[in-house]
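Follow-up to my earlier ticket, as requested here are the two runs.
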Amino acid sequence: MELAETRVSEHLHSPGSVFSPDDQASKVLGYLKDTGRYEAAASGGGRTGIVTVRDLLGVDHPERTKVESIWEQVGTVRDDAAVIDVVENLIDNGVRALPVVDRKEVTGIISQVDLMGALAGLNELKSVAAKEIMVTPVTTLNMEDGIAQARRLMLDRGISNVPVLSEYRLRGIVTAEIIVHTFIAPASKTKTGDRVGEKVSKLPGQVSGIMDKQPLKVGPEANALNVTREMTRLNKGAALMVDDEERVQGIITPRELLRLIYDLRNEEELPVYIVGITDEDFFESAVAEGKVRRVVVRSMRMQPKITEVRVNIKKQRTQGERMRYDITARVLGPEVSFNATNEGWGLMETFDGLLTALDNKLRRAKVEPEKKPRHGRRRPNPNLNP
């Protein structure tokens, strides 16, 4: 993926207004609402950071809140930094954007959305099934749930997009951006007599009254390229995978799409061996290896000691023109070993079922914490002479 080695300068956007740490949060909110942006840069006193709409979600009195009390300081990047290094920073630190700095001056902002737009031009994403990268299970709300409940849920779980259901079927989505721009009056929009940036108390009403009634929906057959292009075209912060009955199966945000870049480093180093089948029978072996890597690499944040994967495919019997397969995967490391198996008719169908089983196995696995030496006072041994 050549995008990983391109420079930040090819993808960043102008910082627009750069705020001071002493500025009011309501001033930043006004700027974000006027420009339609999700984040703004702030700099001063030798410090630089980012303020996002989600940072404002937890502010009760923006007119009395300073930027320095809510901004995120996770470092800066240069415009000649490689995209893969920036993606690693964004994902590891759980942030949406980073300020681009040259000689202590903010010259731009590079965000997850900027990089998602670049991904939209990569045809190789067609080989990545959307269901392989989606997050599941999905946190949801019901139509009658309160807006205050939605806000608290987002703050507690660190999320910005929550699907809204009725009888288990998707009806809309509520976002941090909707809540913030609906219930907080920015400095630029106040009228005479208003309290600048005053937050409406208690956030009255149900989520059904403010939700986006046209969420981006994709089916189980969608690929990562479909999702990326639609999210970019429609300016949506999330795509929801639904089944034929409109039940939510998973959610994809820019973060999940950027993991395709983030995982490159581990993918390049992780050996995957698929044995027991001929090239004639399995002409998409490279695609299969890539699928295995993505499943395992996602788990390497929790199981970093994985060193290789072995997949053994066995033919069992035939029924007409169909073949039944028994596939086993072994994920190995010096101190870990995980096995997953699946049987079924049809090679690719059975292989996809194996990946689901393997993913579930790795997700459930827990890492044993390393035992650290105790540093308390040593008790004297009564059997030793002083």
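Run two:
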Amino acid sequence: MKTPIEHKQGRRQAIALHYGGSGAPRLTAKGEGELAERILDIARAHDVPVHRDAALSMTLSRVPLGEEIPENLYVAVAEVLAFVYLLSGRTPADAGRHQDTD
């Protein structure tokens, strides 16, 4: 499940996370300005829900690409993922499955 997170304070920033059902979610994309717009365009083109949270995106932007999120962000990211699951009609048990195979 990929989840872009964006904020609008100052320069636009976007963060994309992926959670495959085991371990912690990983940071899969991040960018500011024009790159953030491209990340958001790709997310929307693939019907990936976008969640806006300036503080969380600023904190996540410090995580290196490909790395798991730090433990101190588990609760905040879990709340975002729960929101995304609710919107998509999926459950956390579906996290490891590809949407194309459902």
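The only thing I checked on run two: Strands lie at 2-7, 13-18, 26-32, 51-52. Let me know what else you need.
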